[in-house]
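Methods — Computational structure assignment.
A single polypeptide chain was analysed. Its primary sequence is given first, followed by the predicted tertiary structure written as structure tokens.
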Amino acid sequence: MELNSVKETSGCAEAETSVLIVGAGPTGLALACDLARRGVDALVVERAGRLFPGSRGKGLQPRTLEVFDDLGVVGAVLAASGPAPVGMAWNADGSRLGPYDMFEPTERTEAEPYAGRPRMIPQWRTQEILHARLAELGGEVQFDSAVAELAQDDDGVTVRLHDGRRIRAAYLVAADGGRSTVRGALGIRMDGETVDPAPMLVADVRVRPEALDRDNWHFFPQSKDGLLALCPLPGTDDFQLMAQYADESATPDASPDGVRQLVGVRSHLNPEDVTDVLWTSDFRPRAALAERFCDGRVFLAGDAAHVHSPAGGQGLNTSVQDAYNLGWKLGQVLRYGADPALLDTYEQERRPVAGHMLGLSTKVHRGEQQRGAATQQLGLGYRGGPLSAGAAGVLVAGDRAPDALLAGGERLFDAYRGPHFTLVAVGAAAEQDPAPHQREWLRTVRVPGPAAYGDGLFLVRPDGYLGWAGSGGAGGELDAYVAQFAEADVPARR
């Protein structure tokens, strides 16, 4: 059924929540976890009967691992994942052409503790981990719950589900994918381009162990029909198969037999070497960006707001960081009475970043950009943005807040972990009282002087970026900046 947007609310809402999240993919689940730990009521509805079963977004970039560290799931993610393997190219006769590494080398540092090769983990496993974390935090997902109709007014959004249930929410977040029905109902246009006119096929398969090792990401480039790649998925017996088609008019056969025949034609493997075909999907790579990320009390996040080629490994990662940006802002508005205008900064900050990453992933797809430091997303930030003010030491407001080792083996990331702001007083500023007005959602850390910061005061937002930076004598400026994140004289509000 096509989703229709109506102008006025009718009938009575059967359930109420502060935030309704449509879609239980990585974006929706990450946002739900973030809101749950902030004590914000949120409900996730998912039209499917279960979590997504495929490996699609299998690569996690270092910046996303930092997000998962803060959300309390990085241990589970690291245990279930592995570093991206080195590629191995094959001749048609089954002889090896030799190793091929798609990734420029980057090194882990004190300031960037998760830098290095992306982690490989099937998307379904990432979603399982986030879903389990959400349950720990008291949240829930309602499956088989497709949205049929929505209406906005000055105070909230009312949604009718296909089964007739109604839900009333202060805000709605559309995390329902590239074919977002919520976005369609709002009439928000997606502007973009076809990255590659030829189709692609992706599938999760199992291969006889004696037919192919799991030590490499295997590439078979010799077939005239197009490239075939098989990437082992850590923690499973599966490979993710990716096939590009040279013929723009080709129609991929996504059936199990079709996948087996494709492997037999494009590689030295026999069709029967593929023992199981677990999931398949075909598509034409495209890059598209929503003309806006918000409409009244409705926000677009993840693939509902931007669609990437899979080649750059940016789609899921950019999407999770949409959620991370929006979550704390909803928390400050709903719990602490911040001016709802704060939510306008979500689009102002995230849309330019998404546009930049779309360009990057398209260049990677076309062989114009190597996978490396640029694709790890550690250099992204909000300099010059609406919530960035000042500079101190070696940093400028809007920069990502670096990690640092402290006395006793603790890290600055340990201090940042949680839903709060963190005021970091470094060097001479640590000897003063930089926070005369402590708040429930603001903590202070005094450290002698990590080189990644330099002397000064640094207010770190809950999403790990510097909001404000200045000297130890700038308390008045700091107080004025902090005041925008909560209602005056109200320490906490549900």
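Note: The first helix runs from residue 26 to 37.
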